[in-house]
Amino acid sequence: MMDKVKGNDVKGRKTKRTCTVLALACTVSFSVFSLSACSSPNSSTTTAHQEATESSTDSTKINQTYRVEEIATFDEPWAITKLPDGKLLITEKQGKLKLFDPVTRQSVDVQGVPKVAYGGQGGLGDVVIHPHFAENQWVYLSYAVQGQGGYGAEISRAKLDLSNPRQPKLTGLEKIWEQVPKMSGQGHYGHRMLFDFEDQLWVASGERQHFDPAQDMNSNLGKILRLHDDGTPVEDNPFSNQGDVAKQIWSLGHRNPLGMALDLEGQLWVVEMGPEGGDELNLIKKGANYGYPIVSNGDHYDGRDIPDHDTRPEFQAPAISWTPVISPSSMIIYQGEQFPQWQGKAIISGLSSKAIVIVDMSQAKDNIAKEVQRLDMGERIRGVISANDGSLWVIEDGSNGKLLHLTSK
């Protein structure tokens, strides 16, 4: 099957459906939450783009213009976040955390990173900072480890010591969360993190390519989790009376969720990879079951059918699904000023699609979302964040993954 390499997050294409919007009413709203030059400052490349999703007269399509500048190159970058001063933290999958200065275009390794299990889709994963980083200097890292039973993701936090700018380091590293149980294989860790407006830590945990854990309440695999900033479960989570693991769970029935973001109303959205077909963007509801592996708008890689969402209305359907897939890898909801047509919309990075996908969720009350623009990036895109000035930082996937800067045209 074309493009089907699970270990690299590349997915096959399913042809029996095209991009499908499924409408089920929902009205959730909750209040959340060695010094080295990466590239020469004189070697950057700037190009202008103006792309739409497709040639269409659909009035919902937009055509926001933008400019792309190549800034630096990293080795298998996986995640990116910004510090209050505009510097960037970038994880490299083999286990390095880079502190990058956009002004000098220089990066330096951050010392004290935990050991990771590199291989398949595993390694050093996500990085986020605490909402009160200016006061507590906490940085959160997710990563794969090997242990009894196989592999799993962990999250640790540490203080980022910048007292010596040339030798940044993590201090006081402590593990605060882990996937249970550990499983064979090195895929579908998920392990994306997001802080909400109440300083609660949301974790997207993949089902580790083992299907059934997504429906098992004794496992935190295939779930969206809501934790305090120290990794303990929030007390009013929906399954708090069903055991220690279930206490963490906010929603279940997820496959490989790789992007989380809050919209302008404080609602949580999650984008996840489907199997062969059926990537999903979901509006997350407290206690809801999103159906995987019982239902999906995709099928198994071996060709076995999975019933579609519309056959089982007891499961929460996606606001939009994609076939052919986009292979989502991260997501933000844009709130900046540089790209006015993207304000309030989801910006989703895509791997096999080699694209950035813009999605309008203004019909969230009807559980409907619409793709309104697609930026052809020409390479697999691993992550995207908004800079302090409303421009976008984008990282490509792979051993020579570029750091790109998107600005208004």
TrEMBL record:
Residues 74-404 form the Glucose/Sorbosone dehydrogenase domain. Coiled coil: none annotated. Residues 38-61 are annotated as: Disordered. Residues 1-37 form the signal peptide. Residues 41-61 have a biased composition (Polar residues). Keywords: Signal. PANTHER family: ALDOSE SUGAR DEHYDROGENASE YLII (PTHR19328:SF75), HEDGEHOG-INTERACTING PROTEIN (PTHR19328). This is PQQ-dependent sugar dehydrogenase. It comes from Acinetobacter sedimenti.
